[in-house]
């Protein structure tokens, strides 16, 4: 039992019973328990299998490669159909909805699928990084900033640029520039806090 997961469950008072029931099923299996992206994560043979999480209106399991699960009783949800290819959710709104045998069956299938190498591999973005004019202006003023930016991977460079380009108002673009300059100088990616949990 990972104490960080215990803390996560204890802090989610509304869904505490439901999370504990699901967790007890997971702890019976040969899964490593950790915290990733701010939620409990369950790893099998060094591969992320699923996450356990609570939201305002429900709690549940997130199967990273759930699209490969048979789901014969049709309980899995693809919450972001246009964005998520592989992830599927099993949601609960009360203790009464949790059938521990079904949860265990789905988890065991997910583990078997992982061992079989079934996974959705993200497509690599090969498009060139489009640097916004506002950021180019900052680069011309600060050579160190440009140097540090170029040390990031292309995907992290793209995240910074898209963050600025997605702002509609000029004032928003400027506030975002002000936010990311210290991050770039300190070698902190825009979304690192989500990756390193």
From TrEMBL:
Taxonomy, superkingdom: Bacteria
Pfam family, one: OmdA
Annotated signal peptide: none
Ranges for domain YdhG-like: 15-111
Protein name per UniProt: YdhG-like domain-containing protein
Organism: Polaribacter aquimarinus
């Amino acid at each position: 039992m990972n104490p960080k997961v215990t803390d996560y469950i204890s802090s989610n008072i509304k869904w505490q019973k439901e999370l504990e029931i699901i967790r007890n099923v997971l702890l019976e299996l040969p899964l490593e328990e950790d915290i990733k992206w701010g939620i409990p994560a369950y790893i099998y043979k060094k591969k992320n299998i699923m996450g356990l999480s609570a939201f305002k209106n429900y709690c549940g399991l997130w199967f990273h490669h759930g699209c490969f699960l048979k789901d014969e009783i049709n309980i899995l949800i693809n919450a972001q159909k246009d964005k998520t290819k592989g992830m599927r959710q099993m949601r609960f709104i009360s203790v009464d909805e949790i059938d521990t045998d079904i949860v265990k069956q789905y988890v065991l299938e997910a583990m078997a699928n992982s061992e079989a190498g079934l996974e959705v591999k993200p497509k690599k973005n090969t498009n060139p990084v489009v640097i916004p004019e506002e950021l180019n202006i900052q680069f011309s003023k600060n050579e160190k900033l440009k140097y540090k930016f170029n040390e990031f991977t292309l995907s992290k460079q793209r995240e910074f640029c898209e963050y600025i380009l997605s702002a509609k108002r000029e004032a928003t673009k400027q506030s975002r520039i002000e936010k990311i300059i210290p991050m770039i100088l300190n070698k902190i990616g825009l979304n690192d806090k989500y990756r390193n949990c």
